Amino acid sequence: MGAAVRASDGRMFAGVDLFHFTGGPCAELVALGAARADGAREFTTIVAVGNHGRGPVGPCGRDRQVLCDYHPDIRVLFPTERGVRSVLISDWMPLAAVWTLDAGIHAYDPMLSPIAELRKALGLQRSTASLPWAPSWRAGSCWMM
Q1: Does 116 have pLDDT greater than 70?
Q2: Which entry of 28, 42, 81, 117 is annotated as an active-site residue?
Q3: What CATH code would you report for 2-93?
Q4: Which residue has the higher pLDDT, 58 or 116?
Q5: Nearest 5°: phi and psi at 28?
Q6: Could you tell me which residues come within 8 angstroms of residue 24 by beta carbon, excluding any fewer than 6 positions away?
Q7: Given this model, what pLDDT does residue 30 score?
Q8: For residue 65, which phi and psi values (nearest 5 degrees)?
Q9: Residues 73 and 125 sit within 8 Å (Cβ to Cβ)
Q10: Which of 36, 57, 76, 145 is deepest in the core (most CB within 10 A)?
Q11: What's the rounded mean pLDDT across residues 116-132?
Q12: Do 121 and 94 form a contact (C-beta atoms < 8 A)?
């Protein structure tokens, strides 16, 4: 797997995973690490691509949570039946646990507080871009690829 992340200033950073049976960082996390090591802090888009012609691949659960925690406004490119699409990670994970460096994981009632409302209540910023092709996500549901 390989990944690329675009910084808000337009710079691109790449990363690859090193597959091993014991696990290890995914390509997306390696790309984010390379970007941060080079001074980038804000990101607009990330994509992972599989080898042998697999094309774009959606992030694993761990990467989704990391992206949601550190970069809730990043757009993730992923494959669908209608071609490659993008979505804000915070919209992709409407009921994800919200974690902050200062306070750790914040408790919430998933039936009452989707992630956008919780982030708002915690004073965390996120964009409100609408996606005309996306399903309507509501509390109590979790759409995953």
Answers
A1: no
A2: 28
A3: 3.40.140.10
A4: 58
A5: -60, -45
A6: 17, 18
A7: 96
A8: -65, -40
A9: yes
A10: 76
A11: 52
A12: no
CA 114 – CA 50 distance, rounded (Å): 31
Task: Kindly write down the DSSP assignment for every residue of the chain, as one continuous string.
Answer: -EEEEEETTS-EEEEE----TT----HHHHHHHHHHHTT---EEEEEEEETTTTEEEPPPHHHHHHHHHH-TT-EEEEEETTEEEEEEHHHH-TTPPEEETTTEEEP--TTT--HHHHHHHTT--------TTS----TT-----
pLDDT of residue 90: 82
Which residue in the block uniquely carries the two structure tokens 């012609």? 53
Nearest to 124 by CA among 69, 57, 77: 69
Q: Cα-atom radius of gyration of the chain, to the nearest Å?
A: 15
pLDDT of residue 67: 92
What does the alpha-carbon distance between residue 20 and residue 5 come to, in Å, rounded to a whole number?
23
Question: How far are the Cα atoms of 1, 21, 53, 89, 93 from residue 69, in angstroms, in the given order?
Answer: 22, 26, 30, 10, 11
Domain spans of the chain, in order of start: 2-93
pLDDT digits (tens, 9 = 90+) for 20-79: 777 778 999 999 999 999 999 999 999 999 988 899 999 988 899 899 889 989 999 999
Among this protein's residues, is 28 annotated catalytic?
yes
